[in-house]
Design goal:
about 325 residues; 3 helices; 16 strands; disordered N terminus
């Protein structure tokens, strides 16, 4: 079992206020590693749910348009990996609510095996983040975030789409919250024959069909203003033929399944905040060199359990000390 321990990383944040603050700090905010205050000197961008929830193209295509990053994609809906600041995909950290989700099998994340509408925000931190985020974040990092807000509200959102080459998309998202309870659920599907023609030829993409199903949820309970307990989950099922090129025909097929579960306890005190997380990550893939020959198969599975603790102590409202431990 591979064990990674990050001990005592220190950060100091500065903020400006108009009036001098009293000794009793009125409001303490839990500042994660993607907070602009914690990541002082680094560029941090946020893609909001208004963009994520209203777009039915693949996650890789969406991020490429919205963030101007370079994505290596083997065609529409195919494997999509990111490169930040000239690094490889395995040197770009991808996190889900602060938990690293890069594959244990190849060290990277396929963004077309994620459903954009299932998240509320995407936080993007450009530049090396190994001290805060671990050795896998040399070029930068992305955090796929569920935004939990305790305020009375009810929402139901449904989106449907259709396009060329028998492409169909559907997503349903519901949210209910009070001052003590927050619940969100999202489910979606995307399917396409993806048999587009190759420009200037009589040929078309014969092996590009794909379909995926996704489900995500977030449940959080706040018994009082200082404590909250949250449970997050993701299920993703993806089945796709892998497109060839004009010079290289393909009959290969890739099937992958991902399951993620996260439980988190947060404490917001008068002087300090803490966050304790425990996550279970499961991934399973099956690759067929020829989809018509079932015994020519490569496969892999992994199970991971991750524990993470973050602690912040506020010396003043505008200055704090931060440390963390991950196992």
């Amino acid at each position: 079992m591979k064990v990674t321990t990050l001990l005592c990383f220190f950060c100091f944040g500065l903020a400006y206020t108009q009036n001098e603050l009293p000794n009793q700090l009125d409001e303490i905010v839990l500042r994660g590693n993607f907070s602009p205050l914690v990541s002082s000197g680094y560029q941090v961008n946020v893609i909001s749910d208004s963009i994520l929830g209203q777009n039915f193209e693949s996650f890789g295509n969406l991020l490429q348009k919205q963030s101007n990053f370079y994505f290596k994609q083997n065609g529409n809906g195919m494997v999509s990996s990111i490169s930040l600041r000239g690094t490889s995909a395995s040197q770009t950290g991808v996190y889900w609510n602060g938990i690293a989700i890069n594959s244990a099998l190849n060290g990277q994340t396929d963004f077309n095996s994620l459903q954009a509408s299932g998240f509320d925000e995407v936080e993007i931190r450009k530049g090396g983040g190994s001290v805060l985020l671990g050795s896998g974040a040399i070029g930068g990092a992305l955090n796929l975030k569920d935004k939990v807000v305790f305020s009375p509200q009810k929402k139901v959102m449904m989106s449907l789409g259709a396009g060329s080459f028998n492409t169909y998309y559907g997503n349903l998202k519901a949210l209910f919250s009070t001052e003590k309870l927050f619940f969100k659920i999202s489910g979606g599907a995307l399917k396409s024959n993806n048999d587009y023609p190759f420009s200037g030829t009589d040929l078309k993409n014969e092996n590009g069909a794909y379909r995926n199903y996704s489900f995500s949820s977030a449940l959080s309970y706040r018994p009082n203003e200082k404590h909250s307990i949250s449970l997050h989950s993701i299920l993703f099922d993806n089945d796709r033929n892998l497109s060839g090129t004009l010079s290289s025909e393909s009959r290969s097929k890739l099937y992958n399944k991902d399951q993620r579960l996260l439980i988190e306890w947060k404490y917001l005190g008068n002087r300090y905040t803490s966050s304790l997380k425990a996550a279970f990550l499961y991934e399973d893939f099956s690759y067929l060199f020829d989809k018509n020959v079932k015994d020519q198969e490569s496969f892999g599975k992994s199970n991971r359990i991750i524990g993470k603790y973050d602690f912040s102590y506020f010396l003043k409202h505008e200055m704090f000390f931060k440390a963390g431990l991950e196992l």
